[in-house]
């Protein structure tokens, strides 16, 4: 397992290229002439409505929600609230979680992020369900690793702009593995992949 500084070194933390910014303007309505005002309006909306206590409210953090929802303030706000509600409802997935959860996931080869991007320039998150042994690797560990990966991915402006793709390989899945996939687990998967996080 790579060290923390090696993981960070693999992230694309540089400024987005002009080509990527042009793509963002055309595809997600990111306009440099209105971005600052939208960020200010977004921040005002968060504090005036008071539906959550933000873990952060700096522009870099808020921008990822706006980008994910094509700079629609209301849609970005809903995502922001869902994100905070998920964290509040699932503290074990976010508190005291470190890079060791990635080591566990990688060691069992259940969750992977390949070093390459897909043809659209998006990060890929790959689940190999048949490799999951519920007796040795809990579903909570899988959620922790997934959330850590998503948070790391969202540090990349490319990922904020282009998004990501999740592939779930269910080939070879066993009955035992299916039995662990309860409605509660399915609901959490939907929360993570659709309504609460800003990359997938």
TrEMBL record:
Gene Ontology annotations for the cellular component aspect, listed alphabetically: membrane
Q: Which GO terms describe its molecular function?
A: phosphatidylinositol bisphosphate binding
Q: Where is the CRAL/TRIO N-terminal domain?
A: 58-83
Organism domain of life? Eukaryota
**Which protein, by its recorded name, is this?**
CRAL TRIO domain containing protein
What species is this protein from? Answer: Asbolus verrucosus (Desert ironclad beetle)
